[in-house]
Please model this.
Amino acid sequence: MVNTLKIASWNINSVRARAGIVERFLRDESPDILCLQETKAHNDVFPADLFERLGYLHHQLNGQRMHHGVAILSRVPLHDPGRHDWQDNGEARHVGARLDCGIRVENVYVPAGGDIPDRTLNPKFGQKLDFLERMTRWSEGLREPTLILGDFNVAPLPSDVWNHKALLDVVSHTPIEVETLGRLQAAHDWVDLGRHFVPAPERCFTWWSYRAKDWAASDRGRRLDHMWASPSLAPQVTAHRVLEPCRGWERPSDHVPLVVELAL
Model:
C-alpha cells in the first residue's frame, strides 16, 4: 500500500483576518501539512487553537507583528526546525522543518520588491534580488531531498502573466528577476512542479490584484506562488493543483492555495 503525503501552500494575507477561509480550506482539502505566508501575526498571537482543533498539532512559526510571517502547520511530526534570514535584516520570511520520511519542507516568502525595477532608485528591489541570491548560495550546498514552496513573488515565464509585453517593466516579471530566479533554480536543478504538471504555454496563475472590480472577468493574473522539488524527490510527486476558486471566496486572499501530493 502506497502512503500519500499532501502538502498545501498559501499566501493568506493575514491569518487572523482570514481564519474563516483557512478553516474552510482545511475541511475541504484536508492536507497533511499547510504552509502559510504573510501571516501578519507574531507567534504569541498566532491562532494556534484553530489548527489544533482540526488536528494540526505540530507547528513551526516565524511571525512578525503586522508584516510578513510564515508558518508550517502539520498533522505529522516536524523535526529540526530552521530559519534562514535571506533578507539579512531579521524579517520573518522563512521557516523549514524535516519530516519523519526524511524530506525537508522549506516555506519562504520572497519580498515583493517595491514598484520601481531599479535597485539604485528603489532599495527594496535590490533587497529582493539579494534575497534570491542568498537562496541560490544555500541551494548550491543542498544535499537533502527538499520541497521548497511559497510566495516567490516572481512570475518567470511569458505564460505566467496575463500579458508578457505589458509586464516586462513591472516588478515580478522583469528580465533581471527572471534571470535571478533562473540561477536559483539551476543551483539545485530544482523541478518547477507547477510547470511540470501544467506545461507552458498553458495559462497558470496564482495571484490576482484586489484592484480589479471583477478579478475573474479581467483575469489579469500572475503565477507568483511556486512549489519546487529536489531532483531526487520530484519522481515521488503524483499531483499538483492550483485552487483558483478560492480567489472567489468571501474576504479572499489575493493569492490562492497550491496543493501537491507525494507518494512515500
Helices lie at 19-29, 48-53, 123-140, 175-188, 193-197, 215-218. The chain is about 20% helix and 25% strand.
